Amino acid sequence: MTPQQVCVQCDEAITNPICTRCLGQEMEAWMRERDESLLPRIELTTMSFAAYTHEVTRCILCGKRMSVCAHCVVEEAADALGREEVAEELREQFSY
Ligand SMILES: [Zn+2]
Ligand SMILES: [Zn+2]
Fold first, then answer.
1. pLDDT tens digits, residue range 50-93?
2. Quick one: which ligand is closest to 17's CA?
3. Residue 1 lies inside a defined structural domain of this protein
């Protein structure tokens, strides 16, 4: 493993590389069913992460370069919701 294959946010190795965009789409689909009013918060979070990329790790779904682990993205999205019970469900649903 090269040193670059770590998450730029938490410094942990990215063992399950799913990029922010792919994960964002899944979270948005889930949130549309759960509570549509919170959808913009998910979108904002995934957009804010989309700028992070580096040269090594590629998403297993779309092949695009990525640098933030799925865990960090889910945590950030959960925090951004401002609704603890929905945040818990999100963490359970996307526990990477
Ligand atoms: Zn991370
Ligand atoms: Zn992807």
1. 777 666 789 999 998 888 999 999 999 999 999 999 999 999 99
2. 2
3. no
Nearest ligand to the C-alpha atom of residue 49 = 1
pTM, whole model, 2 decimals? 0.88
Counted domains in the chain: 1
**Inside any domain, residue 64:** yes
Assign 96 a pLDDT band (cuts: 50, 70, 90): confident
Helices (H) and strands (E) in the chain, counts: 4, 0
Range of the domain at 54: 20-93
| d(CA 8, ligand 1 centre) in Å | 7
Ligand 1 centroid to residue 6 C-alpha, Å: 8
Is the residue at 63 inside a domain?
A: yes
Distance 78 CA to ligand 2 centre (A): 20
Q: What does each C-alpha distance from 83 to 5, 14, 17, 88 come to in angstroms?
A: 32, 28, 27, 9
In a domain, 75, yes or no: yes
